[in-house]
Amino acid sequence: MKETRRLERVVIRFAGDSGDGMQLTGDRFTSETASFGNDLSTLPNFPAEIRAPAGTLPGVSSFQLHFADHDILTPGDAPDVLVAMNPAALKANVGDLPQGAEVIVNTDEFTKRALQKVGYAGSPLDDGSLSGYRLHPVPLTTLTVEALKDFDLSRKDAERSKNMFALGLLSWMYHRPTEGTESFLRTKFAKKPRIAEANLAAFRAGWNFGETTEDFAVSYEVAPATSAFPTGTYRNISGNLALSYGLIAASRQADLPLYLGSYPITPASDILHELSKHKNFGVRTFQAEDEIAGIGAALGASFGGSLAVTTTSGPGVALKSETIGLAVSLELPLLIVDIQRGGPSTGLPTKTEQADLLQAMFGRNGEAPVPIVAPKTPADCFDAALDAARIALTYRTPVMLLSDGYLANGSEPWRVPEVDELPNLTVQFAQGPNHTLADGTEVYWPYKRDPETLARPWAIPGTPGLEHRIGGIEKQDGTGNISYDPANHEFMVRTRQAKIDGITVPDLEVDDPDGARVLVLGWGSTYGPITAAVRRLRAAGEPIAQAHLRHLNPFPKNLGEVLKRYDKVVVPEMNLGQLSLLLRARHLVDVRPVTQVNGMPFKAEHLAGVLEEALHGH
After folding, report:
1. CATH for 3-221?
2. How many other β-carbons are positioned within 10 Å of the β-carbon of residue 584?
3. What is the DSSP letter of 456?
4. CA nearest to 258, candidates 219, 218, 285
5. CATH code for the domain defined by 510-616
6. pLDDT tens digit string along 361-378?
7. For the stretch 341-357, what's the b/e string if a residue is b when 16 or more beta carbons lie within 10 angstroms of its beta carbon?
8. What is the three-class DSSP state of 608?
9. Cβ pair 58, 91 in contact under 8 A
10. CATH number of 234-421
11. pLDDT tens digits, 30-48
């Protein structure tokens, strides 16, 4: 019997060529880990090109998974295990490895030509450069082809299953369940049963190789994270999938059809793909010819009485800006989902960034205020979608939802909520006249406002007696007639701003168990790395407070008081300090920005060092 060691946590990174199936391999390992009951967090990382040149550094695709027997928040700072399918994968990732990490390499791909392609003069497997790691040279391709010799496949087709061999090996190493992957393969290749059986054979061969080879003397167990989760039904979910489900739930809770007008763009396209599958929930998806048509159609659907959504990334928001301004003027509910990515222009389509905050806040002509909501984890995208819908429907306004590539593609366990836990978003449409003229005539005024929310009534086109004019030119207060009157314009501009300023958002909650002097404040996807860094410092006896913003416009009403409570406020964000700029302007507090724009999320170790410096520096 081989030795089995118990671990609290492990970080695994699968890396290979874009055609090696690393995202599928990582996804399958993640699904089995979720079904086993571990807490987990993932970081897919892949090129923007549809197919970068094979064997090159730009063509490397990787998938990192952190799983544990306790509550975790990030995909891990550094891999404990690297599976490298070729020299390019090794070279691109070896710099992230700590000493003593396990490295599993596919020796079949370490040919002279493949080594030269990425700048290796000789093989790193032989020159001692990997002596600081536990190296496992495995001829993955040869073993896979041998395992499939009875399947009447060409060598090229057989080689494609080497990712399943690697998955089987890693599944053995970490005692992962196998039933889910076997079922998945049979379903995925239901129309090609021979391919399904070949992949299953490769998967089982990888498992058996781990069981029998002398090179892997130890396997590892990471127990389920039974104490990390409240009781409930859980599933693994990515941010984009959670957001899609949140939009569907919002439409059901509002009893409105859901309409998505969208144009495909990385990393937002998954939402379009997912929502298109759910016509049975009253979802209608429209893939438009461009970004402007997508939001135009969505705004038209809102006018017609739908819960309307448009999804995009930063470049698409720029194109949609005039229509967002039109939605501000029309005062109709509309959700603009921005899955942020590296910019400017088309920038880094598959890398993450938080650099659209100022665009969301100010990126329109004229005074055109828009509420902004930002989820903090992949699972939180579900709640953020419901929250954004609540604001849009209650206050009759477009709302920006700022997710990013890290949240969109990353995944974690999510507790499926009970229906009675969801908010009631029911909308009351205008039914008849709402204003009486001086002569006693009853009329419908489209811009007569609710005294509490300042929202205007929402009248469905075709409702008798509620005909009204809409358009982008300034409206007269109440009647909605075209008006160029200076005093009216001033009033309407200030009223639209007051409506946004008056939106009800919860007070900012501060986690400060020790009466700290330093506060670390974040927004969006920095939550995981910040919280992991704060835990490290507190475990070392350092007092530090933490707070995280869900609502960025309007800010929580107690934000100014919270900021002034601390000697230092540190704000980590994946841009050049956009939230810091807003906080300084609004609250006259000299916050300290910690910025990073390398297309990757913060590492907890790096943030812990920065925060420790803030605690003890001047």
Report:
1. 3.40.920.10
2. 16
3. P
4. 285
5. 3.40.50.920
6. 999 999 999 999 999 999
7. bbbeeebbbbbbbbbbb
8. helix
9. no
10. 3.40.50.970
11. 999 999 999 999 999 999 9
